[in-house]
Amino acid sequence: MTAVLRAQALGRRYGRRWALRECTLDIPAGHVVGLVGPNGAGKTTLLKLAGGQLTPTAGDITVLGGRPAGGPAQLAKVGFVAQDTPVYAGLSVAEHLRLGEQLNPRWDAATARERIARLGLDPAQRAGRLSGGQRAQLALTLGLAKRPELLILDEPVSSLDPLARREFLQHLMEATAERRFSVVLSSHLVHDLERVCDFLVVLVDSRVRVTGEVDDLLATHHRLTGPRRDPDRLPAGQHVISARHTDRQSTYVIRTDDPIHDPAWTVSRLSLEDLVLAYMDQRTAERRVALEVQR
User: Fold this and answer.
1) Percent helix, strand, coil in the chain (nearest 5)?
2) All structural domains of the chain with their residue ranges
3) Environment class of residue 215 by beta-carbon count within 10 Å: exposed (0-12), middle (13-18) or buried (19+)?
4) pLDDT tens figures, 82-140
5) Among 158, 168, 140, 133, CA closest to 36
6) Span 3-205: which CATH code?
7) Cut 0.85: pTM above it
């Protein structure tokens, strides 16, 4: 199966600052992918490279087997909903649909009209007078009616209230179940990703920290709590992601494929949010050690 997105040593620099660097990534088709990381991690840069709005400074990226924005056929395969779900404030809902039909050769007018009616949007209403949730749903409608093979969503619900977020994500789940296209969805709201995503990419400090199917990642990551123990005393197959110590107790998040038999440890499962935070904490710990070395 063709990878939906493949990056090799991908980088993008703005002046002297790298917004993304040494990004190597292989995402299989057919998934709803959660791209998560702190602000400034490079999520938007990666998605704009995938959508063809930016060109790489270093490395290479392919999307659905082709170069991003590499001609009309490639553009038709990819839908993109940017941050703040941009729509044209002066255009009506119906005018947005007509514009979408003019710009997209694979446009599904019936789906667009059905979604607008289902959402209860007035076709004559100007987008600038819609609520934030309604604008987000209009932007999603435009993306879905394009009938893409890949839909890229960059923080589409970050500014919405909880009810509007839930409705947006529910509609997204229904559409992917019906049409089985791929989605890459970036967000810093991990709880939302936990409800819809089956594949995870954690991006921290412009680099990929972990990637894989959510079920596999949760099955191979564990929290260990027990008497204080240095990490070099852990078995070789237990890779430490993050660590916390008190005078008497150690708490580790580890990744391992091996069973954990040590009776000294209390072993607990992680939520997706726990896992993401552990990889973010890993980077914080690396910085802390580097500062101590410099001193």
Assistant:
1) 40, 30, 30
2) 3-205, 216-294
3) exposed
4) 877 679 999 999 999 999 999 999 999 999 999 999 999 999 999 999 998 899 999 99
5) 158
6) 3.40.50.300
7) yes
